[in-house]
């Protein structure tokens, strides 16, 4: 499935939301990040050409930084580029709330039911703030500290 095929499969009301968010992401796509279909959604990943090790859960997959997908009752924007980074999480949540829009967010997932609820300027800034090299460094540091994937100390 291609990204266009995915978008065409979405109900009209949510297609408008996905298209608006996708346009903002593509306009602010960080260096070293590409758009693909990933996990059955639109994915924004660091490809193997940039990070050959891939995603630790499945090294055949590129390293994900974000996903955008249609769910049963909303559009989800999964921001792995924010999750796991307390400074970025705090910035994101504060910036979103400062727009006056209600933030419906889990650990990494922002749920959006209506386009007017999407803080597109904050989404744009999230991708502008993203640094591929820093993300990879932080990702590798987390893995090295992990009892499961890296250093087996303690």
Through-space gap between termini: 44 Å
Return the CATH class: Alpha Beta
Q: What count of structural domains?
A: 1
Determine the fraction of residues in helical runs and give it as a percent range. Answer: 25-40%
Order of helices and strands: HHEEEEHEHH
Report the CATH topology name: Aspartate Aminotransferase, domain 1
Radius of gyration: 16 Å
CATH architecture designation? Alpha-Beta Complex
Q: What class, by secondary structure content?
A: alpha+beta
What can you tell me about this protein's structure?
The protein is α+β, with helices and mostly antiparallel strands and 154 residues long. The chain has a single domain, classed as Aspartate Aminotransferase, domain 1, CATH 3.90.1150. It has five helices and five strands, in the order H-H-E-E-E-E-H-E-H-H. Strands 1-2-3-4-5 form a five-stranded antiparallel beta sheet, with helices on one face. Strand 1 and strand 2 form a beta hairpin.
């Amino acid at each position: 499935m291609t990204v266009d095929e995915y978008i065409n499969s979405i109900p009209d009301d949510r297609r408008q939301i996905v298209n608006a968010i996708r346009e903002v992401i593509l306009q602010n796509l960080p260096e070293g990040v590409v758009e693909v279909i990933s996990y059955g959604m639109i994915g924004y990943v660091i490809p193997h050409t940039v990070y050959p090790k891939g995603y630790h859960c499945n090294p055949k997959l590129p390293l994900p930084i974000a996903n955008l997908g249609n769910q049963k009752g909303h559009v989800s924007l999964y921001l792995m580029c924010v999750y796991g980074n307390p400074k970025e999480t705090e910035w994101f949540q504060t910036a979103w709330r400062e727009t006056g829009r209600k933030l419906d967010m889990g650990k990494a997932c922002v749920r959006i039911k209506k386009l007017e609820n999407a803080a597109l300027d904050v989404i744009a800034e999230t991708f502008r703030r993203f640094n591929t090299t820093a993300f990879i460094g932080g990702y590798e540091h987390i893995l090295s500290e992990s009892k499961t994937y890296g250093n087996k100390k303690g």
